[in-house]
């Protein structure tokens, strides 16, 4: 069993049940012993009264004064009986009627025997010396009525105890659930982190849960730090390569290489390829801006600054970016990934647009964004190639391939879909990105 609540509930129920069984057994034994001791004490008192009722008559014979004996011993089958043996004489209670009750052995002080009508008799035997003779008195009482009352009481007690056990299990279950509620809080906060509503788990939790939360937050800090350092290092590396590339570019244009046109052409191609890669990394850093990395992306907050930056980059063309989006849209994803994804799409659209670029964010579950331009568009056969899974477009060639390899990788990473087509309104190239509500990172 993996559930903590299930383990605690099972252990508590088993403990309470065991406690009840032990308590019931002890109570049953104690009540029967107390009842038996009470009956024995009463029978001993009756035996002493019978001893006092013994006397000698005028003829010198031993007789029992019936007026000093409790009247219940004179009622037939009353459940109270006696046998008195004085020498060779034996006196029987009238309550025995014609039932023959055997006298218990002299060595037995207490014993159980069967009585009339199936009665279960508790018999005590006492020995005295009176009138110069040894007197043996056996007094019996039917225990069936008392045992019946005890059974009824124990049945009532068992029912009450069972109800109390259920109530205690319910109360303890409530206490256990209340005690485990901080774990539900941690789970809820993790879900909020997944939706991008918070960056760290709250540490206002019980001391038993606090180390787990602190370790989780520490791990988040380490991962965020590593991600930020990696992105910074990529930008720094691209920036550091600018100077060596400038030198290589000048060397490629040197007149000394005119005697080897093939070598000069090959060197120029490689330098240009490296230049495009470094430009792309620097542009990514510029488009990402200065916002802190986080687990949520708000289009209404991020797209306007991004569009303004791109309009400045392509100010010579007079590109205008038109945006349509809901104001309250929040998507659970890394902000840097989304800025890189849509930054590449918008940059690509601005590069090939004549004057207009449209960005449309649709309301509903998940994130659905459409980017279109009024440029030359893309041939259907080329769009089919772009849509093929695993195809990487060479960014050094003309067309809409610049940055689409990165876009495809990010969309795949978030388990989304990427569709290329023609804009019905602007007539140029159109890209539609659909990302699920709860991305499953792959």
List the helices and strands and how they pair.
Blueprint lengths: L3 H50 E3 L5 E3 L15 E7 L2 E4 L17 E5 L5 E11 L2 E10 L1 H51 L15 H31 L1 H11 L8 H28 L10 H15 L6 E5 L10 H18 L3 E7 L4 E7 L6 H8 L16 H10 L3 E6 L6 E7 L7
Parallel strand pairs: 8-9
Antiparallel strand pairs: 1-2, 3-4, 3-7, 5-6, 6-7, 9-10, 10-12, 11-12
Helix pairs in contact: 1-2, 3-5, 4-5, 6-7, 7-9
Tell me about this structure.
With about 450 residues, the chain is of the alpha+beta class. Among the domains are: about 5-150, Beta-Lactamase, CATH 3.30.450; about 295-440, Histidine kinase-like ATPase, C-terminal domain (Heat Shock Protein 90). Helices cover about 50% and strands about 15% of the residues. It has 9 helices and 12 strands. Strands 4-3-7-6-5 form a 5-stranded antiparallel sheet. Strands 8-9-10-12-11 form a 5-stranded mixed sheet. Strands 1-2 form a two-stranded antiparallel ribbon. α7 (about 335-350) packs antiparallel against α9 (about 405-415). The longest helix has about 50 residues, at about 145-195. It starts with a helix and ends in a 7-residue tail after the last strand. The model is unreliable at about 285-295 and about 390-400 (pLDDT under 50).
């Amino acid at each position: 069993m993996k559930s903590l609540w299930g383990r605690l509930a099972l252990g508590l129920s088993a403990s309470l049940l065991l406690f009840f069984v032990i308590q019931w057994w002890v109570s049953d034994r104690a009540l029967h012993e107390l009842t038996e001791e009470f009956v024995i004490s009463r029978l001993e008192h009756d035996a002493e009264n019978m001893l006092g009722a013994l006397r000698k008559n005028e003829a010198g014979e031993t007789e029992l004064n019936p007026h000093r004996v409790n009247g219940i011993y004179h009622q037939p089958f009353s459940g109270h009986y006696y046998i008195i043996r004085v020498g060779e004489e034996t006196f029987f209670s009238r309550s025995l009627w014609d039932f023959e009750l055997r006298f218990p052995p002299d060595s037995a002080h207490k014993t159980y025997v069967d009585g009339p009508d199936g009665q279960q008799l508790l018999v005590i035997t006492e020995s005295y010396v009176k009138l110069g003779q040894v007197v043996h008195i056996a007094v019996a009482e039917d225990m069936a009525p008392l045992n019946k009352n005890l059974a009824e009481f124990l049945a009532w007690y068992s029912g009450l105890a069972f109800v109390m056990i259920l109530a205690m299990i319910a109360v303890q279950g409530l206490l256990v659930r209340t005690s485990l509620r901080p774990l539900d809080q941690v789970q809820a906060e993790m879900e909020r982190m997944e939706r991008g509503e918070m960056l760290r788990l709250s540490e206002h939790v019980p001391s038993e849960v606090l180390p787990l939360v602190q370790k989780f937050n520490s791990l988040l800090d380490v991962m965020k730090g590593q991600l930020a350092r990696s992105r910074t290092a990529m930008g720094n590396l691209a920036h550091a390569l600018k100077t060596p590339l400038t030198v290589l570019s000048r060397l490629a244009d040197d007149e000394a290489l005119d005697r080897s046109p093939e070598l000069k052409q090959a060197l120029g191609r490689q330098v240009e390829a490296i230049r495009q890669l470094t430009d792309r990394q620097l542009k990514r850093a510029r488009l990402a801006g200065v916002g802190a990395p986080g687990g949520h992306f708000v289009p209404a907050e991020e797209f306007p600054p991004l569009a303004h930056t791109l309009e400045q980059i392509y100010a010579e063309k007079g590109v205008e970016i038109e945006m349509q989006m809901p104001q309250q849209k929040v998507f659970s994803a890394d902000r840097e990934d989304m800025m890189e994804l849509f930054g590449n799409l918008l940059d690509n659209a601005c590069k090939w647009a004549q004057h207009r670029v449209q960005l449309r964010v649709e309301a509903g579950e998940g994130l659905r964004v459409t980017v279109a331009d009024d440029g030359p568009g893309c041939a259907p056969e080329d769009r089919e190639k772009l849509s093929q899974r695993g195809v990487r477009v060479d960014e050094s060639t003309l067309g809409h391939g610049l940055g689409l390899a990165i876009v495809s990788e990010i969309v795949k990473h978030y388990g989304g879909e990427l569709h290329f087509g023609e804009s019905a309104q602007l007539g140029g190239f159109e890209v539609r990105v659909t990302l699920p509500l709860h991305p499953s990172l792959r």
